[in-house]
Amino acid sequence: MKRLGIRGILFDKDGTLVDFGATWFAVGEMMALRAADGDEARARQLLVDAGYDAGAGRFKADSVFASGTNADIVALWYPHADKEKPEAAEAAAARAVAVPGCREAVASLRRSGYRLGVATNDSTSGAEKMLLTLGIAQMFEATYGYDAVANPKPAPDSIIAFADLTGLKPSEIAMVGDNRHDLEMARAAGAGLAVAVLSGTGTRESLARLADVVLGSIAELPDYLSAR
Predict the structure, then answer these.
(1) What is the pTM of this model?
(2) How far apart are CA 32 and CA 14, in angstroms?
(3) What CATH number belongs to 8-19+96-227?
(4) Rounded to whole angstroms, what are the CA distances from 189 to 45, 75, 186?
(5) Cα–Cα distance between 62 and 178 in angstroms, integer?
(6) Which of 49, 52, 100, 128 is deepest in the core (most CB within 10 A)?
(7) What span, in angstroms and rounded, lies between the C-alpha atoms of 154 and 150?
(8) How far apart are the first and last CA of the chain?
(9) Domain ranges of the chain
(10) Coil, strand, or helix at residue 116?
């Protein structure tokens, strides 16, 4: 049964559906090394520039690599060779790893009648390929990459597009994500529920102020919605 007047759910991809570290870190190293022409010291600096915290062994919340668009990464690392990011996205799509409990949660929400979609700052084609790798592409009615809307996250465009597609009001849509951009988009669009998850690069400290609820991961979402 749907609660809170929520009838649709729009998910961020990396860190929310996809295990960010397991999927992207090795690809990020490859991209940085290529951008640095094999110079390992320069590659390490490029990773830091993109938000990698070497001490913590992870990308910082809301950093360029964690929440920026493909174009942002290209501008930072490949200003003269924009073909590199699509190649990296292909590699990431092939090795995509789901957040634990992702498939079961998405299937449960779909069975409960929620309209489901994905909003990401990855490319639309890259996102669709990742969802296929995870075996959940058929669960979603739409995927909005940064190149599918006029303005990517944190602008409200993806939520508005999903509302237009489904006939739902933004107030009937929940936005679920692991970075501030996801929650800022929810607020900008007037979404009915802003759900933060701690399965990606965001932290409780960085997300709580903008979220209606903070969950460990989307594995907790079906129970949360059914209990409200």
Answers:
(1) 0.82
(2) 19
(3) 3.40.50.1000
(4) 36, 28, 5
(5) 9
(6) 52
(7) 12
(8) 10
(9) 8-19+96-227, 21-94
(10) strand
